[in-house]
Sequence to fold (690 residues):
Amino acid sequence: MGSHSHNISKITQTICPYCGVGCGIGLRVEQDKIIGVEPLANHPISQGKLCTKGWSTAYAVDPIDRITTPLIKENGVFRPASWDEAYRTITEAFSAAIHDKGADSLGIIACARATNEDCYAAQKFTRAALGTNNIDHCARICHSPSVAGLRQTLGSGAMTNAIDDIEKADLIVIFGCDPTENHTVLGGRIMRAKLAGAKLLVVDPRLTRLARMADLHLQLQLGTNIALINGLLNIIFANGWQAQAFLDDRCENEAALRTKVAEYPPERVTRITGVPEAQLIAAARMYTEADCALLTYGMGITQYTTGTNNVISISNLTLVAGQIGREGTGINPLRGQNNVQGACDMGALPNVFPGYQEVAAPASRDKFAAAWQQQLPENKGLTSLGMTKGALTGDVSCMLIMGEDPVITDPDQNHVRRAFEALDLLVVIELVMTETAAMADVILPAAAFSEKQGTFTNCERRVQLIQPAIPAPGGAKPDWQILGELASRLGYNGMNWGNAEAIFDEIARLSPLYQGMSYPKLAVHYGLQWPCNDDAPNGTPLLHSKTFSRGKGRLIPVNHADPAEMPDEEYPLFFTTTRLNFHYGCGSMTRKSPLLERETPHGILFINPSDAQTLGIKPQTKVRIHSRRGEVETRAVVTDEVPAGTVAMPYHFKEAPCNQLTNNAQDPVTKMPELKACAVRVTNLEAETK
Ligand SMILES: Nc1nc2c(c(=O)[nH]1)N[C@H]1C(S)=C(S)[C@@H](COP(=O)(O)OP(=O)(O)OC[C@H]3O[C@@H](n4cnc5c(=O)[nH]c(N)nc54)[C@H](O)[C@@H]3O)O[C@H]1N2
Ligand SMILES: Nc1nc2c(c(=O)[nH]1)N[C@H]1C(S)=C(S)[C@@H](COP(=O)(O)OP(=O)(O)OC[C@H]3O[C@@H](n4cnc5c(=O)[nH]c(N)nc54)[C@H](O)[C@@H]3O)O[C@H]1N2
Ligand code: SF4
Ligand SMILES: [Mo]
Fold:
């Protein structure tokens, strides 16, 4: 090649590192720099489209402020260190903790933004190298109720249908999610389906973009999903609109459900939810009359102390209407992070090995012990919030956090900070200096998605290959390699893989869901949807078509319960937290993009015009929001998007961290905190100073 070849840019086909839609992107590279991002015309999901975050991925991994060497904190200040010294510091502290208190005094947090290979390495490191099941990740505070709830009712907690089914449905139900903002390309496909004639039913306390164009919008009070669904089921049974043949053939426990929903006549449901009776009846009719109704749901269902029961109740509705098991129907939890489905599939959870094989089952323990050549711990591990709690009680002494920013993204920020301060050692593996990394004793530099090979599993269970486009800056390494090297230092040599593909082959050997997959096969197919095995060599777009994973679909009666904290005299407003299209998670990647920052440069409080008037608040007025746990200052956006009596804040802004305010009260089954409802008071700061 001549020297002019340096000037020729090339495209690396890969997958967007933000949300669970999993759009295909092309990274255009010149002289080891990403100079642009392009959509992939033939990608099966994004079909040549991207949202602004996808277009902006080059900024996300920009070398400018990346961490490029290990850092060790000395007298409160970070100094560069060699890998050798960083590893020594970590292994000394980990070994001391194991010696003094046992392996259960260590806690590991994996990363739903990293690859399957990284997450597989994280849980193997935790179980085989350390000897504890204390491994978790952000699914805990995201879709853990989907995993727990749908496992009980269907036997599997993933999206039942493919994204391609959006165009096959004649009714699309959007239940507690906001896809035009958060799953933008998928949300765009829903908008186009609506324009092409599909009906749209939205259930959300806020007037979202899709709610504005819906045929029917049920604007329920925060935290009243179960009452609403029991009410719909009451109406459905009373009118004989249920899919009786489907219920007889494929479901169990109908009588118990009928008895329970009889307690929820429309008058009572209207009183609890605020939704008029006529709308309840119209919704019940719409959903049962549709030939194919595809239901999607999100954080408006899961992020409650009733999260698991909310999911069960969604499942009850779908089963009674028979809207599942066919194309264009189904229960579709819109998994959030680019690889949160994968992080769960990999067993980065305290109770399951890869492929949801139970830690508590001796047979799966034996299987993994044999494969990993190591004795494995028996007792179930701590959840992520269990680890923070353990840090405060002294039961957990060291934590390793691989790419999450709990100081910004976990509930009750002051509690989280106190917990991390109490640790003997906090290790963070990160791309950039986050609020959590700033609290670490040791930081290790991670390679970003654009600098490594691996796989992401999107929300429709599609496992897709990512490819390195540029070298990692400085000494940054893939998470799996860092964890493998640490494992060796701790005396466990079962993680010395030569490359990511070797890890994937190990995953395929040990997890029946991925058994039929390999890198060459994924490359040919634009990814494959699990389960993929001898019975389904080309993957499975549609789950539960003949039987449910658990056999019969189980109907489970559940009761309404109020959120743990309701508005009162002292804190008179309901507070909820949401997302903005232009920013993502803790903001560590999107806030580097001038384009995205231009759209939303700082935190905001959404407040209804009537509440704003009472408080003398105008657009952009400075406000302070107080809850029982903390306070934040930000600026007001006066809008009818939120109903009177409810205010909302996005969680992307470290200078206005809404998790100062949120409640750590938890779902008893999954320990999901109640991120979607608590009580606050708002003060007008400009009125105070006048
Ligand atoms: N731009 C952007 N996209 C993202 C993310 C991001 O940070 N930024 N994060 C990703 C992640 S991790 C996730 S999990 C997904 C989340 O995606 P979504 O599930 O869409 O998340 P949210 O906006 O938090 O909440 C969804 C909706 O729930 C509604 N809601 C609140 N309470 C209730 C209730 O009681 N009942 C009902 N029916 N609805 C209620 C809210 O008004 C809101 O519209 O987004 C992913 N995509
Ligand atoms: N109030 C409120 N709080 C919430 C929510 C809410 O709705 N309301 N939603 C919750 C939900 S659903 C979620 S999923 C969580 C998300 O919470 P987090 O997981 O903490 O959020 P992210 O911004 O995705 O953080 C990911 C971090 O990983 C780093 N990273 C990216 N790629 C890699 C990699 O390959 N390796 C490593 N080591 N690091 C990498 C990024 O730099 C970033 O700092 O937030 C939760 N918090
Ligand atoms: S919709 Fe999600 S996956 Fe697609 S470009 Fe936007 S952030 Fe990336
Ligand atoms: Mo999430």
Summary: The chain is about 35% helix and 20% strand. Residues 83-101 form the longest helix (19 residues). The chain has four domains: 2-60, 71-142+338-448+476-498, 160-334, 573-689. The chain has a mean pLDDT of 96.
